[in-house]
């Protein structure tokens, strides 16, 4: 294991099983809907790729890029759109796919924006949930795992753009990011 890592939280096998479960649930819930799956870059790209292959329905795939923490591992509540959607959300059932929810500011902001743009419904699929550090009230409709308030990397999640390619999910040693 890489020296910067503290502990492996979820193995490849655990991740695969959980994504399958979520995909089944989503397939069931969106049977008669107009599903538009929106991944938030970059962190969601691996979860997104795995998840859409477990959804047995016709759907649109898109990505949006918003400003993120950068180096200092802290959210300030401000969200800037760096890359917007390719299609209109109007009348569509939007499923926002995130790697991890922390304060909740990012998703809350995007949800409000999609509703203003006329989406029929907006739901969230987040692979990881740092529930203790939530700053806004929100329901996470499809959730992989709850995690402690540590810094997490792997399966798409980075620290300074590194570690995204780890096939498992791990915590980073405090001395690396503090
Ligand atoms: P929120 O707006 O919910 O505070 O921010 C969520 C975003 O912050 C995530 O999509 C992710 O990009 C980043 N983030 C929050 N916690 C972590 C973490 O433990 N590790 C990594 N790599 N990113 C995180
Ligand atoms: Mg993210
Ligand atoms: Mg990041």
Number of helices: 4
Shape: globular
- Looking at the overall shape, the CATH architecture is 3-Layer(aba) Sandwich
What is the overall pLDDT average? 94
**Total domain count:** 1
Q: Radius of gyration, rounded? A: 16 Å
GO cellular component, one term: cytosol
GO biological process, one term: GMP salvage
GO molecular function: guanine phosphoribosyltransferase activity; hypoxanthine phosphoribosyltransferase activity; magnesium ion binding; nucleotide binding
Organism: Ezakiella coagulans
Structural key phrases:
single chain; 178 residues; alpha/beta; Rossmann fold; six-stranded mixed beta sheet; three-stranded antiparallel beta sheet; 4 helices; globular; binds guanosine-5'-monophosphate; binds magnesium ion
Question: How do the helices and strands line up, and which of them pair or pack?
Answer:
Layout lengths: L4 E6 L1 H18 L5 E7 L3 H8 L7 E7 L14 E3 L9 E9 L3 H12 L4 E9 L12 E5 L5 E2 L15 E4 L1 H4 L1
Helix pairs in contact: 1-2
Quick gist of this model?
It is an enzyme of class 2 (transferase). By secondary structure, the protein is an alpha/beta fold.
